[in-house]
Amino acid sequence: MKNLQLAKLENNPEGTVVQAGSVRIGEDFCLIAGPCSVESENQTLSIAEEVKGAGASMLRGGAFKPRSSPYSFQGLGLKGVKILAEAREITGLPIVSEVLDPRDVGWMAEFVDVLQIGTRNMQNYSLLKEVGKAGIPVLLKRGMYATIAEWLNCAEYILSEGNPDVILCERGIRTFETYTRNTLDLSAVPALRELTHLPVIVDPAHATGRRSLIEPMCMAATASGADGLLVEVHNHPEAALCDSDQSLTPDDFKRLARRANALWRFMKNGWGERDRNEKDSTGMKFSLEDIP
Ligand code: PEP
Ligand code: MN
Q: Could you tell me if 189 and 217 are in contact, meaning their C-beta atoms sit under 8 angstroms apart?
């Protein structure tokens, strides 16, 4: 792929592991969950406890929200980031939050474990250069109009500033389909495996925009070989200030976490050499029946 230097697979065919707190993305299955936006201390702490209990590996919440309308809720800003830091203190979960402005990168990196670059900012090159100097991992979402090559070149911007810790996140691209919010491009997962050593996670929430489609697409993403999932969880989804239609209840998330973890173990361990050679599934370490 043209111009790809640091991101290309040849540099680390085994795959890069990005560490955030005690979570090793690219090695462990990484389940990122939390409210679309931090709305209040109560709301965030309660969701944090719920997702932690259900098996989330990281807590995600937006303090700066990139909204289509300037009149929609824009996020709590610094106050929201402090609430997330408090949630990490209580639960021990590393925190992920989106940064919108290059001027906020420095101070936000002091509070959060992973900086998220949202779809609308994937090609904001000054922001990419700034997070490239932040010294903490970056979760780089795919631009909704971006090709895989353009996306990888954006990762290259971050890597070339000296930050090796980039996690790619497929979150759906715009197509003519209107039933779903975007179209989840799951072929991007195995395609990226051929091209880059960076870990890849999938966000079916922003891709589909529909609660009912999230679990099936999480399972499909896990089966496609993703290193993790990003989903939105709210204790009262109907009242969420942002992305209410795609927010899971804590119970939905609990079931999803059990199933996706079981499938991930199967994907990792189930197709052992012996099974593949003998075309016999009885020797699988994990059978699909493990999926609750
Ligand atoms: C989000 O993660 O809440 C978000 C705004 O996502 P995206 O940038 O993918 O739309
Ligand atoms: Mn959202």
A: no
pLDDT tens for residues 87-134?
999 999 999 999 999 999 999 999 999 999 999 999 999 999 999 999
Report the b/e string of 170-205 with b at 16+ CB within 10 A: bbbbeeeeeebbbbbbbebbeebbebbbbbbbbbbb
Question: Does the pTM of the predicted model rise above 0.85?
Answer: yes
Q: Is there a contact between 242 and 62 (Cβ–Cβ < 8 Å)? A: yes
Higher pLDDT, 274 or 79: 79
The span from the CA of 182 to the CA of 174, in Å, is: 5
How far is the CA of 34 from the CAs of 25, 48, 64, 278, in angstroms? Answer: 17, 7, 14, 43
Three-state SS at 19 = strand
Q: Is 268 helix (H, G, I), strand (E, B) or coil?
A: helix
- 204: Cβ contacts below 8 Å, ≥ 6 apart: 172, 184, 213, 214, 217, 218, 221, 229, 231
Question: For 153-197, how does the pLDDT look when each residue is reduced to its tens digit (9 = 90+)?
Answer: 999 999 999 999 999 999 999 999 999 999 999 999 999 999 999
Residue nearest to atom 9 of ligand 1 (CA): 119
The yes-or-no verdict on residue 30 having pLDDT over 70 is yes
Tell me how far the alpha carbon of residue 36 lies from the centroid of ligand 1, in angstroms.
8
Given the CA of residue 203, which atom of ligand 1 is nearest to it? 9
Q: What CA–CA distance (Å, rounded) separates 94 from 197?
A: 23
**Cβ neighbours, 10 Å, residue 224:** 18
Which amino acid would we find at residue 68? S
Give the three-state DSSP class for 272.
coil
Nearest CA to ligand 1 atom 6: 118
